[in-house]
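A student in our group prepared the protein record below, which I am reviewing. Here is the record exactly as it was handed to me.
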Amino acid sequence: MIFSIVVFASIVNEGYVNKESNHLYCVFNHNNNACNYGITIGIIAFFICIMFFTLDLYFPQISSVKDRKYVVLGDLGFSGLWAFLWFVGFCFLANQWQFTSSDDLPLHQGADAARAAITFSFFSILSWAGLTLKAWQRYHLGADSSLFSQDQLDVGHPPYSTGVENTETFQSPPFAENLDTTSKGYQMPPY
């Protein structure tokens, strides 16, 4: 979340310069698409981080096994997608910065912000790839453990019968005093 803030804030704050006019140009080779991509991916990644952080907080309270599975799969999909999008953003920003001449930046204005955006785009690749790996492990762990089960939700409720019952706590059958337990074999019922 912090990396995405650094990327979009540095581009918004110092990513645009004006040179001999009132029109603002992007510091990445005057390519507004580079600045727009960095800002867009940074803001969306920030909100996705907040969403998945909230889901991680409420994950133990999700009672449906299907919903838990969808949350983990969503985390896996979004993390993988954003790792790829940050990779594209890093390559795009680094490529545009490579072609930016120092004459386009008066007093090297915005150069530090551009370098920070590129650097933290790279760090974002690593962090989102790590989140993808953790989501993959969580998915595989969930298939083998109680991540997708409801065992921990039954805490505080009496357990259901398992089929094995303790006979010491039950009453004797009705009319037990009339039964003759000493005789063996078949007895004729009295009419």
In short: The mean pLDDT is 80. Helices lie at 2-14, 32-58, 65-98, 111-144. The first strand starts at residue 16 and ends at 18. The CA atoms of residues 154 and 160 lie 10 Å apart.
